[in-house]
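Supplementary Methods S3. Input chains for the assembly prediction are listed below.
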Amino acid sequence: MPIIQPIAGELEPHPDVALIEKVRAGDVSAYDTLVRKYERQLFRIAQHITQNREDAEDVMQDAFLKAYEKLEQFQGNSKFYTWLVRIAVNESLMRLRKRRTGKMVSIDEDIVTEEGSVPRDLADWAPDPEQNYGQAELAEILRKTIQGLPQGFRIVFVLRDVEGLSTEETAETLGLSIPAVKSRLLRARLQLRERLSRYFHRKAGLREMGSGK
Amino acid sequence: MTCAEFLALLDDLIDDTVTAEVRDGLQAHLGGCGHCEVIFNTTRKTIEIYRSHEIYELPAGLRDRLHAAIMARCKKGC
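Predicted structure tokens for the full assembly:
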């Protein structure tokens, strides 16, 4: 049975390494610990990609089962979390493909390659804009706003900014170059900022000033 | 520094991956450009809001179903 080596450059092995060794030794409860640690993240990622709750539930379950079955193949040269995310992203894209009756689905979908991301809406925001909304209303605004992003931007933003993957890990997970991840991340951030400005701008007519029309 | 040059380095400033020298240049531009200051502050806030709010809650019962599926898989041979 292969012993997982610590990730190069890290002095201390990641805590997941010990749990994975336990699972390999037959301790299923150790896998439960890993599931509980990452279930929210995997569900969010699947939901962001599939934009469908049932699909996201299936993806999360399939991803954890697949990871469990393939645990022997995990060599420890990347973080377990990053490995899991890669499985979940692939499962999500497969699920989308099924839903669209076999049509190819890629993360490049909807990407418009025109240059220039010069922000248009320049209205400043209220100091704590989210305070103006209730929890449920705010969540709805955030969902609607991010759902409007092109998929290739949305996935990069979610992995990099929400789920905390590095630029390199995001590139590896999505099969993109590092410059492509950086370019998409900047556009995603700017587009989200602009869309949120419709809700979070300072009051007193600044919205009209910022519309640029 | 022009606004376009600032914008090209906006992510690096937000992620704090710039050298001290470049950061000084970016901060100097920010100090004199209200436009870029708004972009910088609101972009940073955008990331912070998405990081700090759970917009997709884990559905009730999903954890139990997943646990049952893993146990069923395990019975076939872990």
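Residues 28-50 of chain A form the longest helix (23 residues). The CA atoms of residues 50 and 96 of chain A lie 6 Å apart.
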